[in-house]
Amino acid sequence: MAKQKIAIIGLGKITQDQHLPVIDKGNDFEVAAVVSQRGLSHNGVPSFKTAADLYAAMPEIGIVSVNTPPDVRHAIAREALEAGKHVLLEKPPAATLAEFEDLKAFAAAKGKVLFATWHSQFNPAVDEAKALLAKHGVGSVKIEWREDVKKWHPGQEWIWEPGGFGVFDPGINALSIFVKILPFAPFVKAATLTYPENRQTPIAAKLTFGSAEAAQPTLTADFDWREQGDEKWHMTIEAAAGHKLRLYKGGAALEVDGKLAVEAPSEEYERIYAHFAQLLASGQSDVDGSPLRLVADAMLVGRRDVTEAFVW
Ligand code: NAP
């Protein structure tokens, strides 16, 4: 089958690291144009300063991938849907829940496919953890998602601005795994959010979750951008039936009772684009807002702490 033409909006870090190389080597899509405020291009395809310019010049491109920071995603995605495009959204899908719900409804009204991606969900080890917890029940989940912000977000000022999510930018990846593997819906019961005195978003957050489960499993998350050295992206899980699971490497590896059960090369974006091709073929959207809702709830019930100023 011929590759489908796709345009990429925003040629920042994740576009360069994942979207472009993954699309280029895959069989489903062909990057036919890009939209870059800085005027970057890719393999000589046309580059436009705005999406409106792209839609006017190349109406034959029916699919866009929106890889900007989250605060501008809603306006860009809505403009794309209005122009009759199918849309893939990087995570987080919007800056607020109302924006997210609006996109979901607008895509449905327009009859267009909308795919709110959660890249960390696209790991075989996550699927296996989900299957094991469905079978054995959940005793506890302890999430530790700690990384050095200077290593993973070098110079990205938007992460510290309102709508930039702060440490929830990586934390929402952990939450996307959390909601996928749990056989029930978690609620944020309490949160402590630690803000650098010179910044608008948290550098660290500790969350405690509840649920409607009678056994009240212990569920916690520790997000921190002040980690030095290697990142720690892992979850320690006890199944109700006694098994111990360790999901680590950002969801790429799973140990069960101390033994490696699944470790696959990280192909999150390969799986994302394969899933997108399936969604386009079936005309269905995939829009789960639950990780975003947990972040919003942490902001609603969170206690605020202030720490020393952050400088790059
Ligand atoms: P980034 O390096 O800052 O890149 C974002 C790009 O979006 C900018 O370089 C710019 O590209 C474009 N952009 C910025 N403001 C815009 C605006 N107002 N209108 C249109 N385009 C605008 O950020 P990133 O790390 O790639 O992150 C982007 C998104 O991907 C975030 O939501 C993040 O959570 C997610 N993500 C990032 C990573 C990662 O490892 N960095 C991993 C997974 C997901 P142009 O100058 O080319 O227009």
- What string, H for helix and E for strand, traces the elements in order? EHEEHEHEHEHEHHEEEEEEEHHE
User: Could you name the CATH homologous superfamily of the largest domain?
Assistant: Dihydrodipicolinate Reductase, domain 2
Distinct helical segment count? 9
Integer average pLDDT: 97
Radius of gyration: 20 Å
* Helical proportion, percent range: 25-40%
Structural class: alpha/beta
Find the count of extended strands (DSSP E, 2+ residues): 15
- As residue ranges, the low-confidence spans are none
EC number: 1.1.1.48
GO molecular function, one term: galactose 1-dehydrogenase activity
Domain Gfo/Idh/MocA-like oxidoreductase N-terminal: 5-115
Protein name: D-galactose 1-dehydrogenase
Brief sketch in words of this structure:
With 312 residues, the chain is of the alpha/beta class.
Q: Could you describe the 3D structure shown?
A:
The protein has helices at 13-25, 51-57, 73-82, 97-110, 124-136, 149-152, 168-181, 268-282, 290-301; strands at residues 4-9, 29-35, 47-48, 63-66, 86-89, 114-116, 138-146, 186-196, 204-211, 218-224, 232-239, 244-248, 253-256, 259-263, 302-307. With 312 residues, the chain is of the alpha/beta class. A nine-stranded mixed sheet has the order 14-13-12-11-7-10-9-8-15. The chain has a six-stranded parallel sheet with strand order 3-2-1-4-5-6, sandwiched between helices. The chain folds into two domains: 4-116, Rossmann fold, CATH 3.40.50.720; 121-266 and 296-307, Dihydrodipicolinate Reductase, domain 2, CATH 3.30.360.10. The longest helix has 15 residues, at 268-282. The mean pLDDT is 97. The structure holds NADP nicotinamide-adenine-dinucleotide phosphate.
